[in-house]
Amino acid sequence: MLTTILGMGQGQASERFHYPARVEPSSPLEIDAALDHNMAEPLLKAFTEKHPNIDLTYTNYNTFEVFNRAQQSHSSKTAADVLISSAMPWQMQLANAGYAQPIDTPNARQWPQWAQWRRELFAFTFEPVVMVYRQDLSQQMPPPRSHDQLLTALNSPQTQLKGQVITYDPHVSAFGLMLGMHDARFSPQFWALANALSQARFQEGGTTNEMIQKIIEGQARLGYNLLGSYAIQAAKQHPELIVQVPEDYALVVTRLALQPRNAPHPKAGRLFIDFLLSDQGQSLMATQTPLFALKHSIQGPWTAQSLKSKAGTALHPIPIDTGLLTILDPLKRRTFLRRWDQTRTDSK
Questions:
Q1: Which one of 42, 46, 333, 339 has the fewest CB atoms closer than 10 angstroms to its CB?
Q2: Looking at domain 128-252+326-346, which CATH architecture does it have?
Q3: 279-316: per-residue pLDDT in tens?
Q4: Which helix (H) or strand (E) holds 5?
């Protein structure tokens, strides 16, 4: 496997991973994804072992970059064969605008209707949005277990969280913008919480892993609205991290895969998407990487069913329908970001 680091805008860097074909004749497969390689690696290895003639190149980008590259390549021959992203509205926009092609494979035909859109978009994970805190925080205050408790802790005159909370910068992260706008629509207390975060001089980050690293290093003590799959993966190596699914409500993100209409290697792309939906692919997500397998029949510690058994009615999956596009309305986005920025200004 060969790795190349590529420069990108916004201070980010993409990572490219190459899994060479082991038999000839070979078929290329290009995957553009907003999914860290260490999370995807069990899937990539198993797929290339199953299909040794596939010459696979996997490039990990941020969510905005996946979308922007897809738009730029729509009228060219530089398109990827598969796009994967947790920024659900942007994936829906690509499909709704005619950028995606239907997938007609055995597993796609059997996939739950609620977890797909027109056989062009396929959800294959079930990832909760969580809070993450350092275990030593509990020595100074009761760690918040819900949004309400976080709001109360932030508003307390004795709060231990001044300058210690970190969350997404919605200007940098499409995923963070999506979460913020869904929170604002779902919870009547969202703007009170945003104001309390600002009064506590919260920090902002561009990715969950970046924010978790700051918590590990002690630069922050609590992360708000982080992606549960990445948080659980980090906590496996860092037992000082506690991952809390909020008890009042927890948004659930489903990572979406699509095949561009102008994919240069459509057969290979279809094989990969079908693999994500297969029992083998879903079992790997349930046992080797905490993406939370979506398929009901799959067993393991990280499945949608196991998560539902623990969190119950607190879970609120973001629906996969054209309602996602309202988040992309320019006026709604500007209004949200203006109000978000105003909370920072008012706290100074």
A1: 339
A2: 3-Layer(aba) Sandwich (3.40)
A3: 999 999 999 999 999 999 999 999 999 999 999 899 99
A4: strand 2-7
